[in-house]
């Protein structure tokens, strides 16, 4: 709006702010000249960047991210359950308990089934990931020979290694408390570097994954909505927002 | 009819559908406002150009999430201010880090309440507006510009200025009244009364 147009508006009671604001915006924003070559260069660079995003898939597929997250936890859970199952069987065999092996294995299988009931399909994937270490009840329904006992021991050793590896992976994440979260987020935002765009997710308009972190013992993703200033600590598998931070709102 | 130019919302829709030409036109249409916002917030053209490009990239990446709840220009304005707020926060942290690593103990007193709004100024604007803004206390003028021109939230203004929320509102209210007196000319204002006591 030009100054002339603004002045044609007859100000009346209560209208002054709107007129003043219009004049201020006109002078402080509309009158700012741009360098046309810089403008063209900027737009060209942005389009190229978007093309690169498309071709390289830099914009992360959320479902993939969710799947990875779920698998990580399920791998750990499956490995722990598998070790417990194996240990239970081994103990019974070693101590010569009265219960039949078949019954023990079936009970363990039920326990595993309960633990993974909500994510059975992913748990199977996770089992694959830990080397198919979880003993299948079907394969052990026949009588247990000493050879099989040795195999069980070997499997337990493998499972222990897998569990240790995964525990290390989990412990490699930064561990913070809720009180430390605002400062942690501010430090993240102060850092430059590539961040993964994860698009519209869990009610967030345009999510930008800053990092994963262990918050009060819970694995969460730190995600910012780039169209607003809010940053959330969120479980992307369930969309549960664990905490919300306004940067520098400490 | 085949070559009838597309209107703004049609262009945005095409851009959302992946039409790169439409995206280019949309970005070109928004560039001036985005740059102006960045220039006013950051105070120099070079930084403004860098952050304008960053803001345009965010707009381009996020355009599919624009649902039309506000005008596209308003949405872009908000992305631009968010981008520049991020940059100002980074600058503040660099400033703090630098100060805290110096030997002089007195620098340890610097905290997050440092005012980083001094880049917001208007020495290059046309005379009538400049003289009005210069005629009132600078903190009032900056508060009004941040709120009414740059459309920043009160909380963000308080953070950038290093002052309490109540003080922000007070400054904006008084600044608006003073500027209305000087530019609008339709208020029975008392400049001296309005400038007395910058309290919450």
Written as H for each helix and E for each strand, in order along the chain, the element string of chain A is HHHHHHHEHEEEEE
Radius of gyration of chain B (CA) equals 20 Å
Report the mean per-residue pLDDT of chain B as an integer.
Answer: 84
N-end to C-end Cα span of chain B: 60 Å
Alpha-carbon Rg of chain A, integer: 29 Å
Give the SSE layout.
The complex is a heterodimer of chains A (250) and B (200).
Chain A (H helix, E strand, L loop, with lengths): L2 H6 L7 H15 L5 H21 L5 H34 L5 H15 L4 H10 L16 H26 L3 E2 L4 H10 L5 E6 L2 E12 L2 E8 L5 E5 L4 E6 L5
Parallel strand pairs in A: 1-3
Antiparallel strand pairs in A: 2-3, 3-4, 4-5, 5-6
Helix pairs in contact in A: 4-5, 4-6, 4-7
Chain B lengths: L7 H9 L3 H23 L2 H18 L9 H30 L25 H9 L2 H12 L4 H8 L3 H20 L6 H5 L5
Keywords:
heterodimer, A: 250 residues, alpha+beta, 3 domains, 6-stranded mixed β-sheet, 16% strand, elongated, disordered N terminus, B: 200 residues, mainly alpha, Rna Polymerase Sigma Factor, Chain: A, Arc Repressor Mutant, subunit A, globular
């Amino acid at each position: 709006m030009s100054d002339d147009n603004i002045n044609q508006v007859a100000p009346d009671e209560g209208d002054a702010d709107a007129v003043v604001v219009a004049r201020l915006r006109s002078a402080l924003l509309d009158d700012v000249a741009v360098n046309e070559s810089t403008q063209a260069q900027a737009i060209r660079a942005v389009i190229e960047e978007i093309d690169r995003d498309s071709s390289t898939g830099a914009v992360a597929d959320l479902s993939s991210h969710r799947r990875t997250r779920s698998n990580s936890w399920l791998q750990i859970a499956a490995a722990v359950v598998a070790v417990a199952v194996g240990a239970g069987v081994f103990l019974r065999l070693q101590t010569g308990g009265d219960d039949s092996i078949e019954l023990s294995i079936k009970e363990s299988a039920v326990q595993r089934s309960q633990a993974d009931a909500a994510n059975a399909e992913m748990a199977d994937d996770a089992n694959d990931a830990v080397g198919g270490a979880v003993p299948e009840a079907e394969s052990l329904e026949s009588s247990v020979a000493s050879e099989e006992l040795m195999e069980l021991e070997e499997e337990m050793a493998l499972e222990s290694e897998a569990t240790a590896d995964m525990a290390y992976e989990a412990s490699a994440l930064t561990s913070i408390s809720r009180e430390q979260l605002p400062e942690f987020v501010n430090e993240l935002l102060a850092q430059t570097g590539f961040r993964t765009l994860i698009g519209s997710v869990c009610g967030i308009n345009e999510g930008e994954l800053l990092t994963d972190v262990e918050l009060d013992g819970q694995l969460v993703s730190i995600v910012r909505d780039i169209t607003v200033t809010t940053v959330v600590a969120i479980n992307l598998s369930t969309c549960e927002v664990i905490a919300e931070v306004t940067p520098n709102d400490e | 009819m085949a070559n009838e130019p597309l209107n703004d919302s049609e262009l945005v829709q095409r851009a959302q559908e992946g039409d790169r030409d439409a995206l280019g036109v949309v970005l070109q249409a928004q560039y001036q406002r985005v740059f102006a916002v960045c220039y006013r917030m950051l105070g120099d053209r070079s930084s403004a150009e860098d952050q304008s490009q960053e803001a345009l990239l965010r707009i381009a990446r996020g355009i599919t999430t624009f649902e039309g709840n506000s005008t596209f220009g308003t949405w872009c304005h908000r992305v631009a201010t968010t981008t520049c707020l991020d940059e100002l926060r980074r600058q503040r942290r660099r400033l703090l880090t630098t100060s805290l690593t110096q030997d002089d103990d007195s620098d340890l007193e610097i905290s997050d309440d440092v005012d980083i709004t001094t880049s917001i100024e208007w020495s290059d604007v046309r005379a009538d507006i400049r003289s009005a803004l210069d005629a009132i206390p600078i903190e009032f003028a900056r508060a009004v510009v941040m709120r009414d021109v740059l459309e920043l939230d009160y909380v963000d203004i308080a953070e950038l200025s290093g002052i309490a929320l109540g003080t922000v509102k007070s400054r904006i209210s008084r600044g608006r009244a003073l500027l209305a007196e000087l530019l609008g000319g339709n208020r029975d204002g008392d400049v001296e009364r309005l400038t007395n006591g910058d309290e919450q």
